[in-house]
Amino acid sequence: MKKRKKQFPAQDMEMDALGLTAENGIEQPEPFAELLDAFDAHTWVYACANLVANSFASIEFLPYIETRDGAWEVNERHPFFTLLKNPNPHMSGVEFRRSLSLSSKLTGNAYIILEPEGTKKPTELWPLQANRVEVVPDRQNFIGGYKYTINGHSRTFSADRVIHFREASPTSLQYGQGALSAVKNAVMSDLYADSWNRYFFANAARPDAVLESEDQIDSAAQRRIAKAWSGMFNGSTKRGKVAVLSGLKYVEVNRLHKDMDFVNLRKMLREEILAAFGVPQSMVGILDQANYSNMKEQTKVFWTQTMIPEIRKFESIMTMRLAQITGDTKTVIQADLSKVEAMRQDEQARANVAQLYVNMGVPLREVVEAFDLPFELKEEPKPKEPAPPADDEDRDAKSKGAKLADAREVEWKRFDRDLRPIESGMESKLRSYFRAQGKRVLSKFDANANDLVPSDSSKNVKTAEDKVRLIFNFDVEKELLGVMAKPSMRSAYVAFSLRTAQRMRSGIDFNVDERVLGAWIERKVLKLQQEATVYTREVLEDAVVNGVREATAAGLSRSETIDQIRQRIEDFYDFAATGRAERIARTEVVGAANAGSLETMKQLGAVGKEWLTSRDDKVRETHDPLDGVKVGIDEMFLTSDGEQLAFPGDPSAGPSAIINCRCAVNPVTER
Predict the structure, then answer these.
(1) Are 587 and 661 in contact, with CB atoms under 8 Å apart?
(2) Which residue in 485, 582, 468, 483 sits closest to 535, CA to CA?
(3) C-alpha to C-alpha distance for 36 and 40, rounded to whole angstroms
(4) Which helix (H) or strand (E) holds 415?
(5) pLDDT in tens, 465-486
(6) Most buried one in 69, 111, 144, 510, CB count within 10 A?
């Protein structure tokens, strides 16, 4: 008889080494019961886990099936349609999901048992307590079952009857690692700090001490004195009593409460715990630096970075196990996020984008359906296209030129109107980015001021680069800028690509070339990241190095020097959060919009392109002569100072040719 090939040879070797058999469970990597106890004992663990669990429980999961026309609709006939709403007679869907989420975040594992056994159409779903479950290995199938132990009695469920949700773990394939595992030391430290405070105040806020005597005291006398002292002074109700020492000397042996710096310690531990759970401070009631703007942004970050990964994990595992259990490979489980306010755009932003598509010619009904708008938009009357000039040889050439110029002005105003919502959105994000960066830099400056401005100038051995590195993390800030800027640049590219397609009568079925789009965005974002972050680093270096030099020359004291440098940094970020944010947003969005337009022109066969300016006093002197200039689709526009650009905002040109540029490019379809 041919021997069956083992499916998991590495696991087989591991099992042999550990002496495991199919009857024994793999020991939990750490006592899950202790992790669950932290939920009861620690304020911030409870607050974070409870917030995540309640947020997860508020999401409804539905089975979807693909229809013949390619659309997805809810499959109400599927057994899981009812099960996910009412999993068993004693739990609602909300309670069920909350239980799973709590178990997953605290221990890294959550389990669902299907009832009845052996059916492809389960009628009940029950959660299992993670601290009572052990994974049973199997030589052929990797996991043979799950051993459940309660009150000393064990029962093993087959693997096909259990749905196991695991958080990612680099050390185990059988068990997940929860958020609490990463910060258990911080949790214990905070509990010890809390315990110290509790006993401190229980002892009438008096520090520990010893009673000294110059005479030798026997053990019986020591016990009698200690008992009498404790009986008279121990406890919060006995504070203020007069002590008669009778030759004894009271000596404190403990540090004062203020010396322990518990406030800052516990704040630091709290931040570690919140970070592990992915919870912003404002969402658990810490409102020290909260305002409407950053609370709204933090809520959105919480959903996108913490909850969405949890939701996607549940969707994928449920879909996979559903197919294995029921044999239905056509149904997928998906979350309904339509009611999550943080995942919806601001109504004004949605209205602006919707209006943009209406202006591009997309039917109003389709726009309302696509954006799920709760109101109706009124279509703006479209400016009349200027009538083509008559072929009358007697027509005045000057009048003809004026009409063409008017047409270009109308077209530029359309461009500016459609661009403004995207530009404003990016500017708002940049303002927030620079404000947050300024706080990070100033915080590090305050922490490292002694190293940046040493009291003894002879000890000032740090290089300028080393000093800046103390307050500015180049790689981190560069990455954050890219994450912030990419969506707006992509939005401008896509919107104006579709706008140009509509103008060239391609209709709304035109598809943006994602390969070209992705490559262009990556190059442009990388260029922005490098140039903007290098500039910031240079400004900070100048503020620190020259600030010290100028202060020394002026005879300022060390504290005055620190204050002066700090003020220079504050001034820079005040400008960055206003003028610089506006300038970068305009430059990048205009460049992306024109790049998208040009790529569409090439795809749809335009023979040339035309430069449009705003025709006002804000047009840069080198661009003013380009208004109305037409060149071949692959040719370059040439400015009066010798710059060559494929389109307004072309990133290959120098900064003087593109910064704050508001010009547009139009297709030329006939020679």
Answers:
(1) yes
(2) 468
(3) 8
(4) helix 397-452
(5) 888 888 999 899 999 999 989 9
(6) 111
CA proximity to 309, closest of 39, 56, 44, 51:
56
Strand partners, 211: 250
Are residues 472 and 550 part of one domain? yes
pLDDT of residue 146: 92
Q: Say what the pTM is.
A: 0.47
Does any domain span residue 510?
A: yes
In this predicted structure, which of 91-95, 501-505, 559-563 has the lowest mean pLDDT? 501-505
Question: Do 368 and 433 fall within a single domain?
Answer: no
pLDDT at 671: 66
Q: What does pLDDT average to over the chain?
A: 79
pLDDT of residue 255: 57
- Give CA–CA dist 476/533, Å, rounded: 10
- Collapsed DSSP state (helix, strand, coil) of residue 375: coil
Number of domains within the chain? 3
Asked if the structure places residue 149 within a domain, the reply is: no
Q: Check whether residue 485 and residue 358 sit in a common domain.
A: no
Q: Are residues 415 and 521 in the same domain?
A: yes
Expressed as residue numbers, the domain containing 404 is 400-600
| Residue 149 contacts residue 131 (beta carbons within 8 Å) | no
Mark whether 367 and 501 lie in a shared domain: no
Which pLDDT band holds residue 228 (cuts at 50, 70, 90)?
A: confident
Distance CA 550, CA 546 (A): 6
Q: What is the DSSP string of 467-529?
A: HHHHH--HHHHHHHHHHHHHHHHHHHHHHHHHHHHHHTT--TT----HHHHHHHHHHHHHHHH
Specify if 461 maps to a domain: yes
Q: Which of 566, 600, 634 is the last residue of a domain?
A: 600
* Reported confidence tier of residue 15, pLDDT bands at 50, 70, 90: very low
Helix orientation angle between 364-371 and 347-359, rounded to the nearest 10 degrees: 150
Residues 406 and 448 in one domain: yes
Q: Tokens 């002197």: give the residue.
A: 621
- On the CB side of 610, CA atoms within 13 Å amount to 18
Q: Are residues 366 and 460 in the same domain?
A: no
Amino acid at 177: Q
Are residues 514 and 437 both part of a single domain?
yes
Residue ending a domain, choose from 327, 356, 382:
382
Cα-flanking dihedrals φ and ψ of residue 269, to 5°?
A: -65, -40
Helices (H), 84-218: 93-107, 179-182, 184-202
| Residue 19 scores a pLDDT above 60 | no
In a domain, 499, yes or no: yes
